[in-house]
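Changelog note: in this version the structure field was regenerated for every chain. One regenerated record is shown below for reference.
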Amino acid sequence: MNRRNLLRGIAAAPLALLLAKHGVAAQSPGGAINVEEIQANWKKLLADGANVELSREPLKLSDAEWKKRLTSEQYHILRQEGTERAGTSPLNQEKRAGVFACAGCGLPLFTSEMKYDSGTGWPSFFTTIPGAFETKRDFKLVLPRTEYHCVRCGGHHGHVFGDGPPPTGQRWCNNGIALRFVPKSGAA
């Protein structure tokens, strides 16, 4: 196994455990975790016609096309790296089973099992769907932070901090406007 596949397998382990809770296999016969299979299985768990995009093929649009595709608030967050006011997102109270996808391109980013109440006023997650984000250092508030962007469309989602719950100790603090929730079929 090459280094890239090994790292992808390690990153996929938390998601594989979550899938197992739903009775979905995430391992190949040899025991290795298969990221593509995990993604395919999550698509099966979604409602029919849920309009999510599993392809990580880069989505490059002009500024004018992004302005047509997004609301002015989404454009400010996703394309201009803005931040919504704390406590304003209805996704803070979202408790149904499902997937949180990028509002810009539909790529699944988090599952409902990854979400927790951080008390910060923004939707927060202790891990992500493997390979969903790219990170970079941000010095906008003087102290360095880790900012993350959708790997498919480059949309800004938020910052990751080291004060989250076990098992990762991470808090992926996301702007709710940058997300679209897709409930699992039959979720109440």
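Spot check on this record: DSSP finds four helices and nine strands in the chain. The chain has two domains: 1-45, 52-183.
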